[in-house]
Structures are given as C-alpha cells and as structure tokens.
Amino acid sequence: MSSSDFRFLMIGAMYENGGNTTHRFLDGHPQMFVYPFESQPGTRHVNDMLSSLFPLKYRWPVFPLDASPQEDYREIIDEECKVRARTPQVSKFRHVNFDFSDDERGRIYAQYVSNSGRSTGNNMAAFFRATFEAWKNHRRSGSEVMYVGYSPIITVDAEKILRDLPLAHVLHVVRNPWSAFADTSKRPVPLSLPNYMLGWTLNQYYALLYKDKYPDRVHVVRAEDVMLDPAKTLGAVCEKLGLEPAASLAKVTWNGQELQEVFPWGTIRVPTPEANLATARELNAEQIAEIRLRTRQYLEIFDYNSFI
Fold first, then answer.
1. N or C: which end of the chain has fewer CB within 10 A?
2. Total structural domains in the chain?
C-alpha cells in the first residue's frame, strides 16, 4: 500500500470559509473514510514564502532526508487529533466518543512506511490509512474507497498534493468575504481586516490557478451553494471523483452521527443561507466597503457582487 494506489480528497478553504462545514457534510458518505478533525499534516520543516503568512500545521508537509518512519510520524503536527487522543480533558472535542490511540497509529504508520519506503506521498498515505486502523469505534459501511482530509488554507499547496499522490483530488471551498470576516472577528485574537483579506484573496488565487492547470483534479465550490443544497452541490463533486451521490450529504455528521451544529468543528454553527447572510450583516458599513475594495477582483468571479 503506497501513494500510487491511494485515493484521496483533500479539502482546503480560508479560515471561516466553510471547509469544516463541507467536511462534516461529507462525513457520512458510505464510500469515504472522513478524517475526524482538521487533518493538519504540516511539519516544522515547511519553509517558503508563505511560511510567515500561514501556520505550518496547515501546510502540506516537508520531511527531512535523514529520518526514520518513527521520526517522520512525530514530525506531523496533527494538533487536533493528537490533543484529543493524548490529553482529552483539554480538547474541544472531549465530549465525543473517540476510541483511538496515537501510539498505536504511530506503530501502524511505521509498518506501512517500512514496506512502501519513505516519501511525502507514501508518508501521507500511511498516515491516513493508519488513522482509520487505530480508530476502534469508527462507524464503517464496508464500502469505503477514498480517504478525505481537511486542512485550512492547504489549497495553496494543491500542486504539491497532486504531485505526491497520483490519485488525489483537491476540493476548495470559498465563502463570501463579509460573512467570513464577521465570523473570524469572533475569535479571541482575530486577524485584522487587511491581514485576513490578504489570506482570503491568496486562497482564491491559488484555487483558480490550480483549477485551470488541473481541471480534472481540482474542484471549487461556494459555501453558499453547499449551504443551500449540500446533496446537489457535493453530489456533483462525488460524481467527478467517481463516487456515488449519497443521501447522507444532506446533513452534517461526525462519525456518522448527526450534529445539531457544526461548532466546535468550525466557527459556522448553523450552515443555512439565512444564517450566512445574517452573519455578513453584523459588519458595519465601513467594513463592508473596505472588504469590497480589497476583494473586488474575485467578487464577480464567484458571483458575490450583490451578496450584501
């Protein structure tokens, strides 16, 4: 089992753009192994022009040349899952039943990589496969054929993902910048409007660039369309992946169990068009105008000019 036969979908989105929401809508699909939390596959060895803009944990990983499989595994940040597994009392997911050992996953991972050989693609294939072998109470359908991860902003690394995993696809989610900024403003230490919009526009730049370069492997959806009709919007994506549309796409779930709200998996609590518009209207007129100015080149492309 190496990267050459690993079917994979990575979801990417700017913060508060509906990535977690889309991830939860896909969770119950019978043909998908859907990662339980944000995947956060990055390592501290990522070092490029974007390293100062986006947290390394969200990036596609870089591994040192002189390391063992065990050392590679420890380099993968994967903060949300490791915190829940090792110190569940401080995890924001401590309320969910998660029968999982990070040490066991590490052992399974090392066995896979010892057989396949070390490479970024083989390491990531082993990481996701080992996760679902170590997750003892994962509810399986028996029909799973594709693994699904989600990491914020990882669309900027889409070309690397496609290079390292020949059967991989990337799904980028974009949300109107007003609702997105209103939600990110609720964080304890939020990004400023200029800094947030720099990240938002860069994510859309890379999404459109790679969609043009790899039209059969990079897919873009609007969060608004996912909220309006998740079964239709994500069903169309599934067909492009060679999967069947499923009734489960109509509701957000975790480990196949329906959620009343997406939070704490994401900032969006209720994924409806009405709640999305109400969130945008929390901004004042000056903020609305400034966001329009800073994102103007993408508003027409994504049909957001008349959103608010």
1. N
2. 1
Residues in the chain: 308
pLDDT in tens, 267-304: 899 999 999 999 999 999 999 999 999 999 999 999 99
The string of pLDDT tens digits covering residues 4-15 is: 999 999 999 999
What tokens appear for 151 in the block? Answer: 């990491």
Taking the alpha carbons of 42, 165, 150, 7 in that order, is the dihedral positive or negative? Answer: negative
DSSP, residue by residue, 176-221: -HHHHHHHHTTSSSPPPHHHHHHHHHHHHHHHHHHHHH-TTTEEEE
Which tokens go with 110? 């090392």
- Which CATH number belongs to the domain containing residue 10 in this structure? 3.40.50.300
Determine whether 59 is exposed, middle or buried from the number of CB atoms within 10 Å of its CB (0-12, 13-18, 19+). Answer: buried
Q: Give the residue among 24, 91, 11 at the shortest CA–CA distance from 58.
A: 11
User: Is residue 306 in a domain?
Assistant: no
Range of the domain at 166: 3-299
Q: What pTM, to 2 d.p., does this model score?
A: 0.97
pLDDT 10s digits, 257-266: 999 999 999 8
Distance between CA atoms of residues 43 and 76, nearest Å: 5
